Amino acid sequence: MTIIGVAGGTGSGKTTVVKEIVNSLPPDYVSVVPLDSYYNDTSDLTDEERRAINFDHPDAFDWKLLIHQVNELRHGRAIEQPMYSYLESNRLKRTIHVEPKPVMIIEGIMTLINKNLRNMMDLKIFVDTDADERLIRNIRRDVVERGRTYETVMDRYIKVLKPMHEQFIEPTKRFADLIIPQGGENRTGIETLCKYIEHIVL
After folding, report:
1. Which of 6, 67, 189, 198 is most buried by a 10 A CB count?
2. 27 pLDDT more than 80
3. Is the distance from CB of 15 to CB of 182 less than 8 angstroms?
4. Backbone angles phi and psi of 79, in degrees to 5
5. Are 88 and 77 within 8 A, CB to CB?
């Protein structure tokens, strides 16, 4: 199994890069493990306490469960991947059944921050996009898909997203084997990446 980590700031284009990698390989060849699925279970907290959680801090993730399930897939065992709801700010009761595949992609803002997780990766990628472009994408996504107001998104960006990106996400760029500038709009970079991945896994 080849394990690929894809990191980068919120709105950087990670999902686009992952889709291109998946599409460049044979059908049913890749399992995708989103870091967002592994936010801590907050069932024991009140709604107010959940809303106060900083979801852009490393402590918001259940690294123990993620690393355990990645190891399970590495050893050929299927997993029940948790599902997370942004609307409820909590895990859902249902899970997603994930079978081991020849390629596993772990994708998320802090995919490269945990050393134990990094050490399992064969290829580490950082999707790097200008802060203004990431902000615009965040506004579009959070207002349209997550029902947030423009004011709420801007306030969260200034108080949480920007400082957390600078403190925790941007520094992980140094761990990357490859950096994709301009995110999903860098067609040449993505095509070159896909060709390289095809070469090492097929």
Report:
1. 6
2. yes
3. no
4. -130, 165
5. no
